[in-house]
């Protein structure tokens, strides 16, 4: 597989480490009323789509960036690759 | 024996003769020969015995699809079984032996199995050897293994080396026949980076095997001209002897290049290279494979595919027989007849299943219209054929043409499905090709030369490469084909899969017994499961299954095509990864010192660490380890602890970041101080521990365990980039940058005073337990000093730039001479940490919580941190949870066993009564008996209780007493002293 | 206190060979210091670098050579490596002083070992281990990439037409040298 790194261009997937669903960015608020529930869902519940899937890849043998890769789980086609940091900020994460 | 079957012509170098042996018999051939063509030239028709029935077999094809003529090549350790003679290039001194027979090839003692064939039909393993069960391992399997099978391994280590590599191109052309060469030339002339890979050692594909002309010249000459043009271009890489064996995601292709297989010796160079080719586009121009027609006794040596017979005559100047009949259902078979006749080979008959006029004039041949071959004679080589009308014709070779199958394999490697074309009676590539792949020529169903050349150009143009030159002129040779898969009048067995001995009858039996889906058919009969993967067998077999079920062939479908296209040696897949270089290894900075001082090394991940340092007179490792522990606790010991992960953490928010990744508080850590930290996983399970030192206002150094150094770094980056992207924190690994040594024992300070420069005050007041700082050693060398202790002794860790580490070890030992300082290895380190009750990998095993480890109170509830919320789940805080405690044997002379489970006195040793487990044990030389750490339900409240430690694995149990995990210095006086 | 002195023993010191027309050597006294750009302080960092080295920040995956011989390699948006020849173990302090606190500096000298390869066959040898496309039109002079070779993390830099510098972890120096050396022998 090839991942087209947004800063570095196409790189072999061998340089990357896979983590899983990009929903892992959305870590719940520890002080929320339903924190236990929310963390349970965050930790254990995943969608398993046959089709487009946003997932986290880490460029360990590269620039050490975490990426959000949109990949079709059936065809392996990759339609988007973004820096996870940008995605996290866009989803409202900050400090 | 001389080359009695040589005829004129061919692409061989007749000016040079080379010798080789087959079963010890000396034979001669020419450069340009394959082993198959040379065997045929020498009149050797019988080449091997079949897999199951030990039937005599000969050469069937002229290419990589060969099912029959497999041999053991080379001698000694280099011996390779199951080599296809049809692709083995002849070299001087080549030695080949036939395989799968007991006794000689001519008189195989196992040929008796052929007489048993009524009992050995499809599924016979499953039916025959079911009972009694115990007989399988002892009787049936060894007997079957001895009688079935192919070549033998040498049982020696492969003496050759292999390599891997990476190539990049705009266009990968797979197959260098007319279509491939046209596509390559078009793209290359347009400036593209082109790779042309072909499994053959001469590029040109069928052009080398046919008498067809291109632009008025011999096809082979035209091909050679294109190859020469391509070879001269800097943007083209020609790869003969290179099989594209797999099509993978995103334009990645696997290519096996055979570098030295055509040479007598590899000369120390890699025998084969496994390339990973990254391509923007690929043109599959893999041609087509001829298929046989099944009829009675169609497996005899001398029955060959017609296109192969033609190839031997045209390319290699070999007539596979003196009287060669042609049996065909298509126009193509006629070309074999015509080419042979033109070369003076007697062609007594062309037997065409079609009731149609002759396709061309074949001098001397009778044309048998609407006829078929139904049986053959000749035990060790074809002598006679019998036609369906009863006529018998004496021949020593029968060229069979059942039509051609486009080589669609690579189009299906990503689950693509081929499409059936009625006009060709063959599968062609479907519409679901691997992205970036286009198909041209015969592989795409363009079966004539003119069409192949045209398609090669067209697909390159479609990819954006233009070449305005005229298309080469060639003819659209007649290719009409009327499919016939099986001659129904045949009474004798009719073979489909020659390599796995699967006959038409087996397929019909599979149908009768309900194994009708192709995937079931395959597994029940083993059709297509041999090393040739059924390249010549599968389509005829599923045509017969279609006939049985009354479905069409496309309805019946094909099995899934998977890589590799042809076999890839395990050695090539392993590449360089063998022996010492199986994976990279890491050495500690003091490795050389340790080597010179008697260290025994242990692999810890990729690291090699000193395990202990044996001294003369010591009887075993325990002697060394016990001494290292006692001398360290008695005075001072030194251990290289560089392998612990070190992460340099800087930034305005570094402290806040640490506070969130450790479960305990870090906000209050002062500059110049170290703190123990425990990391949890988000699910609340303990993950890793270590110490973090604050070197400056915005500067920390974290240590991780050796095992988790890489993954902790990864998690920290995740937290930094994905969870809190606006914290100003920066991480960089410095694990390899600092040589770090533990200096432990009551004389640790005294020793370090001799090494650390005098300006630094090491007194307990100035540099107390858990202090850290940047110092200088040995007159100005920058160093870092941490007062931390894993052993429980007064201890420091001192770090110097790694390139000074080996010297530093020597200096510490030299300075420690007056204190009788001792180097210690990982075993003594482990003993001392168990004596002190420190958790390590056995305790942080991915199942335990801070609560289990007795560190529940460390988990701060006043801040957010990873794992905080889920660690508070009621199940994780159960009052009866297991707790880390110490154990000692009631009988002090007994050795505890790690992995034992705790069972109450009088209880049965069952899962229900399980109260926990022993995680670490060691012999404590300090205490003089075995000690253990373990997890016990409510363990912290059960001091003094006697339990049984049961190890069903060892069949042993013993009584143990629950004690504090801190066997040594429970109040910590030593490390604070 | 001068009783004890420490001698440097860099893992690949003295490596010097020529195979397949490629000169393979371990540069002596190559110092490596990482510069991390503070969040929000990127332009100040850029200014400081310009003052100290007379260079604009190279783009990601690119490097630039300063007048004093220091090569700055931009590895990530917020990470730059400075490579320069410096024998004593105070490279980080030297760089930090020059940049006046505008970046976070970490000494990386002993984290890495370096191998320099030069000669027209270099690219052909590196084909055996380097997954990155090194075609001259793709990987130009001054380009740099971190990638993986024979399971080892490697920073590869094209320093000249046929000159490459490879950096990998110092603890696995022997495996690294082996990987590169075998690649040369296999094409010789």
From TrEMBL, chain A:
- This protein's superkingdom? Bacteria
Q: Which GO terms describe its molecular function?
A: sarcosine oxidase activity
According to UniProt, the name of this protein is Sarcosine oxidase subunit delta
Q: Which GO terms describe its biological process?
A: tetrahydrofolate metabolic process
What does the organism's lineage look like at the top?
A: Bacteria, Pseudomonadati, Pseudomonadota, Alphaproteobacteria, Rhodobacterales
Instruction: Tell me which Pfam families the record gives.
Output: SoxD
TrEMBL record, chain B:
Pfam families, sorted: FAD_oxidored (PF12831), Fer2_4 (PF13510), GCV_T (PF01571), GCV_T_C (PF08669), SO_alpha_A3 (PF17806)
Domain (GCVT N-terminal) spans: 591-863
Gene Ontology molecular functions: sarcosine oxidase activity
Q: Which InterPro entries match?
A: 2Fe-2S-bd_N, BFD-like_2Fe2S-bd_dom_sf, FAD/NAD-bd_sf, GcvT/YgfZ/DmdA, GcvT/YgfZ_C, GcvT_C, GCVT_N, Sarcosine_oxidase_asu
Choose any GO biological process term that the UniProt entry carries and state it. Answer: tetrahydrofolate metabolic process
Q: Which domain of life is it from?
A: Bacteria
- Give residue ranges for domain SoxA A3: 492-576
Q: Does the keyword RNA-binding apply?
A: no
Q: Could you tell me which residue ranges the Aminomethyltransferase C-terminal domain spans?
A: 883-969
What keywords is this UniProt entry annotated with? Oxidoreductase
> What family is it from?
Belongs to the GcvT family.
**UniProt-recorded name of the protein:** Sarcosine oxidase subunit alpha
Automatic annotation (TrEMBL), chain C:
Q: Which Pfam families match?
A: SoxG (PF04268)
This chain belongs to which protein, by name?
A: Sarcosine oxidase subunit gamma
Output the SUPFAM superfamilies linked to this UniProt entry: Folate-binding domain
* Record lineage: Bacteria, Pseudomonadati, Pseudomonadota, Alphaproteobacteria, Rhodobacterales
Q: Origin, by domain of life?
A: Bacteria
């Amino acid at each position: 597989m090839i991942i087209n790194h947004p800063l570095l261009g196409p790189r072999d997937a061998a340089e990357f480490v896979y983590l899983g669903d990009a929903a892992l960015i959305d870590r719940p608020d520890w002080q929320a009323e339903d924190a236990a529930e929310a963390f349970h869902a965050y930790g254990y519940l995943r969608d398993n789509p046959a089709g487009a899937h946003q997932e986290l890849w880490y460029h360990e043998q590269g620039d050490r960036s975490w990426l959000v890769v949109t990949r079709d789980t059936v065809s392996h086609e990759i339609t988007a690759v973004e820096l996870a940091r940008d995605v996290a900020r866009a989803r409202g994460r900050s400090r | 024996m001389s080359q009695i079957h040589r005829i004129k012509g061919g692409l061989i170098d007749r000016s040079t003769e080379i010798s080789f042996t087959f079963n010890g018999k000396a034979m001669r051939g020419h450069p340009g020969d394959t082993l198959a063509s040379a065997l045929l030239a020498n009149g050797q028709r019988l080449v091997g015995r079949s897999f199951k029935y030990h039937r005599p077999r000969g050469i069937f094809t002229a290419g990589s699809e060969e099912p029959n003529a497999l041999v053991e090549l080379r001698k000694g350790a280099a011996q390779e079984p199951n080599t296809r003679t049809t692709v083995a290039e002849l070299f001087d001194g080549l030695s080949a032996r036939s395989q799968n027979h007991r006794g000689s090839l001519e008189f195989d003692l196992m040929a008796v199995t052929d007489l048993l064939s009524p009992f050995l039909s499809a599924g016979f393993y499953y039916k025959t050897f079911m009972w009694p069960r115990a007989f399988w391992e002892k009787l049936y399997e060894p007997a079957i293994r001895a009688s079935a099978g192919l070549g033998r391994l040498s049982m020696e280590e492969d003496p050759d080396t292999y390599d891997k590599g990476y190539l990049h191109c705009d266009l990968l052309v797979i197959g260098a026949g007319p279509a491939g060469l046209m596509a390559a030339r078009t793209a290359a002339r347009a400036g593209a980076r082109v790779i042309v890979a072909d499994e053959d050692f001469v590029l040109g594909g069928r052009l080398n095997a046919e008498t067809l002309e291109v632009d008025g010249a011999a096809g082979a000459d035209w091909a050679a001209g294109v190859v020469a043009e391509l070879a001269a271009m800097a943007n083209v890489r020609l790869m003969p002897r290179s099989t594209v064996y797999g099509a993978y995601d995103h334009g990645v292709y696997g290519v096996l290049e055979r570098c030295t297989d055509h040479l007598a010796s590899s000369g120390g160079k890699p025998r084969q290279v496994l390339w990973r080719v990254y391509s923007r586009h690929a043109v599959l121009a893999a041609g087509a494979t001829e298929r046989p027609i099944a009829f009675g006794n169609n497996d005899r040596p001398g029955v060959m595919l017609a296109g192969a017979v033609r190839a031997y005559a045209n390319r290699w100047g070999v007539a596979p027989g003196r009287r060669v009949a042609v049996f065909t259902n298509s126009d193509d078979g006629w070309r074999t007849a015509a080419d042979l006749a033109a070369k003076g080979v007697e062609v007594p008959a062309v037997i065409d299943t079609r009731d149609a006029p002759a396709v061309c004039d074949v001098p001397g041949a009778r044309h048998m219209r609407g006829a078929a071959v139904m049986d053959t004679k000749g035990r060790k080589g074809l002598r006679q054929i019998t036609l369906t009308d009863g006529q018998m014709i004496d021949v020593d070779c029968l060229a069979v043409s059942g039509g051609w199958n486009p080589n669609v394999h690579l189009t299906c490697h990503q689950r693509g499905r081929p499409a059936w074309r009625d006009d060709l009676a063959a599968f062609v590539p479907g519409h679901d090709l691997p992205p970036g792949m286009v198909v041209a020529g015969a592989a795409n169903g363009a079966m004539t030369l003119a069409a192949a050349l045209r398609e090669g150009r067209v697909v390159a143009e479609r990819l954006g490469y233009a070449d305005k030159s005229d298309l080469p002129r060639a003819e659209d040779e007649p290719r009409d084909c009327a499919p016939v898969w099986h001659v129904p009048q045949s009474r004798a067995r009719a073979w489909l899969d020659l390599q796995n001995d699967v006959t038409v009858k087996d397929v019909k039996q599979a149908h009768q017994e309900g194994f009708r889906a192709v995937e079931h058919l395959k597994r029940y009969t083993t059709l297509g499961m041999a090393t040739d993967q059924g390249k010549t067998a599968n389509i005829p077999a599923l045509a017969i299954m279609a006939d049985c079920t009354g479905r069409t062939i496309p309805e019946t479908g094909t099995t899934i095509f998977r890589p590799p296209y042809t076999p890839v040696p395990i050695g090539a897949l392993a590449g360089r990864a063998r022996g010492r270089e199986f994976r990279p290894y890491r050495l500690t900075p003091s490795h050389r010192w340790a080597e010179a001082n008697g260290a025994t090394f242990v692999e810890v991940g990729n690291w090699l660490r000193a395990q202990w340092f044996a001294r003369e007179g010591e009887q075993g490792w325990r002697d060394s380890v016990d001494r290292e522990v006692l001398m360290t606790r008695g005075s001072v010991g030194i251990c290289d602890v560089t392998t612990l992960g070190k992460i340099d953490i800087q930034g305005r928010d570094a402290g806040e970041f640490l506070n969130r990744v450790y479960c305990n508080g870090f906000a209050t850590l002062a500059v110049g101080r170290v703190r123990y930290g425990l990391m949890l996983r988000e699910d609340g399970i303990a993950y890793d521990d270590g110490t973090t030192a604050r070197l400056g206002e915005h500067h920390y150094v974290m240590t991780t365990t050796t095992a988790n150094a890489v993954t902790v770094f990864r998690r920290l980056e995740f937290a930094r980039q994905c969870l809190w992207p606006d914290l100003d924190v920066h991480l960089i690994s410095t694990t390899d940058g600092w040589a770090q040594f533990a200096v432990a024992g009551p004389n640790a300070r005294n020793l370090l005073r001799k090494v650390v420069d005098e300006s630094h005050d090491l007194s307990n007041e100035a540099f107390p337990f858990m202090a850290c700082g940047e110092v200088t050693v040995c007159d100005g060398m920058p160093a870092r000093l941490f007062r931390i202790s894993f052993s429980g002794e007064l201890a420091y860790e001192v770090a110097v730039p790694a390139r000074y580490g080996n010297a530093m070890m020597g200096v510490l030992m030299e300075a420690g001479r007056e204190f009788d300082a001792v180097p210690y290895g990982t075993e003594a380190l482990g003993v001392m940490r168990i004596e002190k009750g420190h958790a390590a990998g056995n305790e942080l095993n991915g199942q335990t919580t801070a609560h289990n480890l007795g560190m529940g109170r460390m988990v701060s509830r006043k801040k957010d941190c990873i794992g905080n919320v889920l660690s508070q789940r009621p199940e994780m805080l159960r009052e009866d949870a297991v707790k880390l405690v110490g154990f000692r044997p009631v009988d002090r002379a007994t050795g505890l066993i790690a992995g034992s489970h705790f069972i109450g006195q009088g209880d049965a040793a069952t899962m229900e009564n399980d109260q926990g487990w022993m995680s670490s044990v060691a012999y404590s030389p300090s205490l003089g008996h075995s000690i253990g750490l373990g997890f016990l339900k409510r363990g912290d409240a059960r001091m003094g209780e006697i339990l049984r430690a049961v190890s069903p694995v060892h069949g042993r149990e013993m009584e143990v007493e629950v004690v504090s995990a801190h066997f040594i210095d429970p109040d910590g006086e030593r490390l604070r002293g | 206190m001068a009783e004890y002195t420490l001698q440097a023993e860099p893992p690949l010191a003295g490596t010097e060979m020529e195979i397949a027309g490629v000169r393979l050597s371990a540069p002596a006294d190559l110092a490596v210091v990482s510069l991390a750009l503070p969040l929000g302080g990127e332009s100040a960092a850029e200014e400081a670098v310009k003052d100290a080295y007379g260079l604009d920040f190279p783009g990601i995956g690119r490097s630039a050579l300063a007048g004093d011989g220091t090569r700055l390699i931009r590895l990530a948006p917020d990470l730059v490596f400075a490579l320069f020849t410096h024998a004593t173990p105070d490279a980080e302090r030297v760089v930090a002083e020059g940049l006046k606190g505008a970046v976070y500096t970490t000494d990386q000298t002993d984290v890495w070992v370096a191998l320099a390869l030069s000669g027209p066959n270099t690219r052909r040898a590196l084909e055996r281990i380097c997954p990155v496309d090194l075609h001259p039109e793709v990987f130009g002079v001054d380009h740099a990439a971190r990638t993986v070779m024979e399971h080892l993390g490697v920073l590869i830099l094209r320093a000249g037409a046929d000159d490459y510098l490879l950096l990998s972890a110092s603890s696995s120096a022997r495996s690294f040298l082996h990987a590169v050396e075998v690649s040369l022998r296999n094409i010789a």
